[in-house]
């Protein structure tokens, strides 16, 4: 019988100064997955920083999934971690409307196949943050580069 134990910790802080408003965030998670004949554990973190000057907000985020620790290791070791870097800018037209541009690079280790979003996401239920780090690219070790452009309006 499978057993999954997971925990995470998140913290954020917003501060302002004469140069604008800044936010810093941090998330850490640890997952232990045990099956009848094997176990696996993995830790990951995400950190982000944004700074708003006037109507423009500059953002950067970095996430990393460590190599897993498994009781049944594959030949050649685990080497199944990944690193993710995103940089972006938003321009706020109002409190409800903004446009954005984001560049993201996912760097998978040799045996990793992380992607940018979960495969089971729907448009309205799309995941953000560290939980998005679980999807698969379809091939181990494949890196991903993505550019996102969009407009968001809150009703």
From TrEMBL:
GO molecular function list: porin activity
Every Porin domain range: 5-110
Gene Ontology cellular component list: membrane
Highest taxon listed in the record's lineage: Bacteria
SUPFAM superfamilies the UniProt entry points to: Porins (SSF56935)
Record protein name field: Porin
């Amino acid at each position: 019988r499978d057993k999954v134990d997971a925990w995470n910790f998140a913290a954020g802080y917003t501060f302002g100064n004469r140069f604008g408003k800044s936010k810093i965030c941090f998330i850490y998670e640890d997952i232990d997955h045990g099956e009848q004949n094997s176990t696996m554990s993995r830790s990951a973190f995400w950190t982000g920083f944004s700074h708003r000057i006037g109507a423009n907000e500059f953002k950067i985020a970095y996430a990393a999934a460590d190599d897993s620790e498994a009781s049944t290791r594959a030949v050649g070791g685990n080497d199944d971690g990944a690193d993710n870097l995103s940089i972006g800018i938003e321009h706020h037209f109002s409190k409800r409307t903004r446009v954005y541009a984001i560049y993201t690079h996912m760097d998978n280790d040799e045996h990793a196949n992380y992607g940018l979003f979960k495969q089971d996401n729907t448009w309205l239920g799309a995941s953000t943050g560290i939980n998005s780090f679980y999807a698969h690219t379809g091939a181990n070790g494949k890196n991903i580069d993505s550019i996102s452009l969009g407009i968001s309006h809150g009703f």
